[in-house]
Specification:
It is a single chain. 66% of the residues lie in helices and 3% in strands. It is mostly helical. It has a domain of 118 residues: Serine Threonine Protein Phosphatase 5, Tetratricopeptide repeat (Alpha Horseshoe). A two-stranded antiparallel sheet has the order 1-2. Helix 2 runs antiparallel to helix 3 and helix 9 packs antiparallel against helix 10. The radius of gyration is 19 Å and the shape is globular.
Length: 236
């Protein structure tokens, strides 16, 4: 998911899709360590820990910007409950900014993914004792994260990243038609958003519409996502 995180700005790929409000929000933060990306951080654990200490001290002033930065650093060290709490405090002080809701949604989603990964590891020992054919399923609720993105879209319906992120959560929830609709809206707003073409292609493959899925993946490849060609090769 696209969100603000800590990373080295020189390692972030430039995006063809520019949003004025996003640029203004980034300028307000005035911090080169905080960037908008869907990639993982390139900073070391030591660098992240040092920034977290800095932001923790700044957050004592209780400005929404300081609380937001501390929430980001807490997310990077996997203190999910603290991160959500700090972002909620920032939202309480600055309730009409879509990017605060976007980051809280991403934080909530990452927390759920982390919990589900632990449960998958635990399930190895459980499944070894199960009878053949017996299946245990676990479902995870992204409702709060989706609600955050719904609010963000109300505030900034022109921002394609919001629909893209919500599409990801619908896909993770198993609602592929809703995911398809969100990716389509993201593409309508930002035809150059390669990630939306890529994910819509995957959703269409999942829904057995191979021809259209491959068309979308080809477009994603043209826009710079090399992984799209790997998937295309597998399906052609």
């Amino acid at each position: 998911m696209f969100r603000f995180t800590l990373t080295a700005p020189s390692t972030v790929a430039s995006h063809r899709y520019y949003v004025e409000s996003l640029g203004e929000f980034t300028a307000t933060l005035a911090d080169s360590n905080i960037v908008f990306t869907c990639d993982d951080t390139t900073l070391t654990e030591e660098e992240v820990a040092a920034l977290n200490c800095t932001y923790e001290k700044e957050a004592l002033g209780e400005s929404w910007e300081a609380l937001f930065k501390h929430g980001i650093s807490q997310l990077c060290i996997r203190q999910y409950t603290s991160a959500v709490g700090l972002l909620s405090e920032a939202i309480a002080l600055h309730p009409n900014d879509p990017y605060l809701y976007l980051n809280r949604a991403a934080t909530r989603a990452e927390m759920i993914d982390f919990i589900s990964s632990i449960n998958r590891n635990d399930r190895i020992s459980i499944d070894s004792e199960m009878k053949p054919g017996q299946v245990v399923e676990r479902f995870y609720n992204y409702g709060d994260a989706i609600a955050d993105l719904n609010r963000a879209i109300e505030l900034a319906p022109e921002v394609a990243y919001l629909y893209y992120n919500r599409g990801n959560l619908h896909a993770l929830s198993g609602d592929m038609p809703a995911a398809y609709d969100d990716y389509t809206q993201a593409i309508a707003l930002a035809p150059e958003l390669a990630e939306a073409w890529f994910n819509r292609g995957l959703v269409q493959l999942y829904m057995k519409d191979t021809r259209k899925g491959c068309i979308d993946l080809s477009k994603a490849g043209e826009l710079g996502i090399k992984e799209a060609y790997v998937v295309l090769k597998r399906h052609n």
